[in-house]
């Protein structure tokens, strides 16, 4: 019965995607949490081999993370090790979401190219975890109305952020500590942060410090879905077994 429902959803989606792109509804763009006293810690550019340590560090702090995965950025998402990493994060209670297929600037792409970047990673996450994501993070935080229209057709919200440590652009660890200290001193009602799963110092130094400071300030450390009150997934079914379609 569930697979019948999924087939209907996908058929409807396909009809919408390939129709002429007239003016459509615009997807919601999320830049902040809405649930008071929450922090959503998010990690881009995986799956990567630091994910296990990040997950364990989050679990030790009773925190839920959100991982925005690419399909083919630091390696193919269907690679056995990468698929295992994604399933590990999902099965350990973290939210999995899309960071698009190849980490391209969506605002520079055509309608068909945007959908290709979106659907390929959505399909992969569904196959690997059984969960069809409801959130996409556009690479570089870049989007335009065409991207928002495509995301709306696909049932996706676009999730950006209101705080970043700067780990992927060369900000030093002491400088990241200072940014965190300034943030905690301001004590905003909510925080939606950006870090990167692919940076060693994020995993070994900055994340543990960030968690300690956030806990000391009394925040609840939750997923993007929890901090916005929105569903993490459009639907959930059983994960699939690898077959000849699991390739980039």
From TrEMBL:
Protein topology in the membrane: Lipid-anchor; GPI-anchor
Cofactor list: Co(2+)
Pfam family, one: Polysacc_deac_1
Residues making up the signal peptide according to the UniProt record: 1-19
Protein's UniProt keywords contain Glycoprotein: yes
Matching InterPro entries: Glyco_hydro/deAcase_b/a-brl, NODB_dom
GO CC terms, sorted: plasma membrane; side of membrane
Residue stretches making up the NodB homology domain: 37-222
Gene Ontology process terms (BP): carbohydrate metabolic process; cell wall organization
Subcellular localization(s) per the UniProt record: Cell membrane
One MF term in the entry's GO annotations: hydrolase activity, acting on carbon-nitrogen (but not peptide) bonds
Principal location: membrane
Keywords: Carbohydrate metabolism, Cell membrane, Cell wall biogenesis/degradation, Glycoprotein, GPI-anchor, Hydrolase, Lipoprotein, Membrane, Metal-binding, Signal
Protein name: NodB homology domain-containing protein
Organism phylogeny: Eukaryota, Fungi, Dikarya, Basidiomycota, Agaricomycotina
